[in-house]
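Record type: monomer structure entry
Structure origin: computed from sequence
Chain ID: A
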Amino acid sequence: AICLSLFTACPLAADAAVNEASGTGQTEAMEEYALDDIVVTASRVEEDLSKAQINISVITRKELEERHYDSVSEAIRDIPGVQVQAYGNGGANYSSTRIYLSGTDRVAVLVDGERVNLIANGMASADLPTFVSMDSIERIEVVKGSPSTLYGADAAGGVINIITRKSLQKEGMKTKLGMDFGSFGRRQYNVSNAGRSPENITWRFNWQRNLSGNYSDGSGVTTVSNMFSDNFSINLAKAFTPNDVLSLDYTNYLLDYLQPQNGTNKPGIIRKGWKHNTRTALTLKNKVGKDFDNRLTVYHNGLNLDSAYNTTSRWMIKGETWGVSDQLTYRSDNHTVVGGFTWYQDHLKDYYSGGTQGLPGKKMSNRAFFIQDDWKFMPKWNVTYGVRVDTHSEYGSHTSPSITVGYEADNRTNFYASYKHFFVAPGFTYLYGRYGQSDNKPETGHTIELGTNFAFDDKTRGIFHVFWRNTDNLIAYSAAINKYTNFQKETARGFDISFKKQFSSHWIVGIGYTYFHGSPLSDTTNPNRDGYIAPSTWNINIGYEQKNFDASLIGRALIARQGRKVSTYVHPGSRTYMIVDFAANYRFMPDARLYFRVNNLFNHYYTDMIYNTDPDPIRNPGNWYAAPGRSFVLGVEYSF
């Protein structure tokens, strides 16, 4: 309560002082200011955020530019209800970043609506630092819930949809150059160019190079983490008519890195690794009738990882995914119908996970048909019902129905209640990896959700969402048998609530709280996935903006996270902590700006992962899971 009072009182007091000093004798309340309208695609069609009857949060392009996030995973961790667990310095080295939405890592990750989940790392992992450079992103949509009818397997907990930027709306060309330097040997260089020709041929390309060295955690222990990466992406499109557009997207990510052996920082023991990921997508959007739109996409994702974990173990993944999706949308006065077909095949060309274990040539595929109708049967009431039928190459057919009943009280407030089924097939790691079992079964279950999206006025928005989820045959690690195995059932429940308030033309404040409880698994007494997930989290952000200057203070707090039962020691600072970041921008010319960022402002020792996180040099000579301590970044951008 004290914090919230300070957040609300300080901006108002500051604005009052400005007005008094100017001698106008008028209050800021006379100005015209409001929160920006946002269009989202959570239901696979564009709609206003205020109309969406689902629990969705958005990181906008403006927020990405002002806060200077280094990766998607860094950006989404500031959304209430999202927990990100990365290894060491952001998770780019090693394997992937584990994302929890609504207390589960069964999350579908999409780029422009198409699946990019990794084929080998668990069920629904995603290598978020590698997909796109931050300059190429228009917005990031995060859906918390279970939209499995539209998005299928991997979506038991929610969806992260990365919407990329396209080209200019008007004929011409624009280029942006940027570079920054910072703590721990950080250097980053960015080049982007976008344009539109008289023939309605458009393009946008982005190149980003990142370099960093060893980092120190909040306790002063140094971790080996040298990284060198190049990320290149390009979008080409031809508009034959305003409604008929053919586009090609390509991304290439290459990373070389050093890491400690076996997760500890013993002096002189260093291992090398490299990663090379690609993504290609060809999309045709066209209007096939007065009320019908169609979107056809063919895509390919490539994954290559080679990491020497220690002197005897090597972790290597080489694979690819081919996919096709076709979506037909029909709109009338009272109905919006979305239907389609998807198919993808994951091909694991090579896989080593310790010793000489290899899995060449493994393939799994899935095809699905889905249809969903949003029917407005009364002026204020609608019902959204749908069904998805998945046919998996290993696990046969499964039907996932869903229904949502919504009530639109007015243009600012809606309420909804939903019941949704989900089906998640085991990935390669949980079947054939070092700790996998080939007889593991798919996870199935259902989610019940109640929620409201509301606005007291055009300056204040809020979200409240509560859910109950039951999962059968949950796959998790069992310390008793040292394997991933099916547990009988997990019951989970939780809620999140958030507010965003535009106090004036200068100040905006957001605050959110999330609660989660998941039942203990059968061989552990710890709830919440053996202590991985904090039962309570807070997210706070304060923004200030003037004509040529803006600043953001972003905080996230995890409360009473227990830590794994099998860990011998979990540092108290990793159980309950708050991390505060600060970012500021100054536009010193119309097309140029300086920016400054401080990460982990108070130099707190913490870790995203809950393993043996003991910084004591006698008990444990450091641990590479610990996150970096305080760091600084200073950069400049110029557009022409």
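Annotation 1: The chain has a mean pLDDT of 83.
Annotation 2: The helical segments are 2-22, 61-67, 72-76, 148-151, 428-432, 527-531.
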